[in-house]
Amino acid sequence: MNSLAELARLIENLIRFGTVAQVQVDPPRVRIKTGNITTTWRPWLNLRAGEDREWDPPTVGEQVILFSPSGNLAQGVALTGLSSDQHPANGDREGLHRRTYRDGAVIEYDSIAHHLRASLPGSAELIASGNITLNSGGDIQIAAAGNVAITGARVDLN
């Protein structure tokens, strides 16, 4: 360590707030703008990155915390997911898990109301290599603006 100024700079760089300036997906990296510094390409933190994996790239302008071991920004990792004025939280109550997508799709589960909802601006598809079972303790309603088709080797509508 050469000086107190160098030590102060390293300490300041351990944990910094910033925003995503650029995103690249292969390999997955971001450049972070923090103060008047823009970092080199750095990895972002995924919820899972082992046998079970998440893929959810951050977006430009998203607020992050940059963790940099030993104060070296070139070794930093971006922790995403901080709400901000530009990207406010998309929920307002306890027990709600909501995912909102850039095209307007919303998937949410309210563990207090015990209600699952998916609102999609496009189509949906469910694929299974095994059976699909639909059980309800109440009514089942199917509403369609177009045709409803039920096909199979055996169709039982009892």
Descriptive labels:
158 residues; mainly beta; five-stranded antiparallel beta sheet; 1 helix; 29% strand
Brief sketch in words of this structure:
The chain has one helix at residues 4-14; strands at 15-25, 28-34, 37-38, 63-67, 77-82, 96-100, 106-110, 115-119. The protein is mostly beta strands and 158 residues long. Strand 7 (106-110) and strand 8 (115-119) form a beta hairpin.
Q: Could you outline the blueprint of secondary structure elements for this entry?
A:
Elements: H1 4-14, E1 15-25, E2 28-34, E3 37-38, E4 63-67, E5 77-82, E6 96-100, E7 106-110, E8 115-119
Antiparallel strand pairs: 1-2, 1-4, 2-3, 4-5, 6-7, 7-8
Structure description:
The structure is a single chain. The protein is mainly beta and 158 residues long. The protein is built from 1 helix and 8 strands. The strands form 2 sheets. The chain has a 5-stranded antiparallel sheet with strand order 3-2-1-4-5. The chain has a 3-stranded antiparallel sheet with strand order 6-7-8, with no helix packed on it. A hairpin with a 2-residue loop joins strand 2 and strand 3. The protein is elongated. The relative contact order is 0.12. The mean pLDDT is 92.
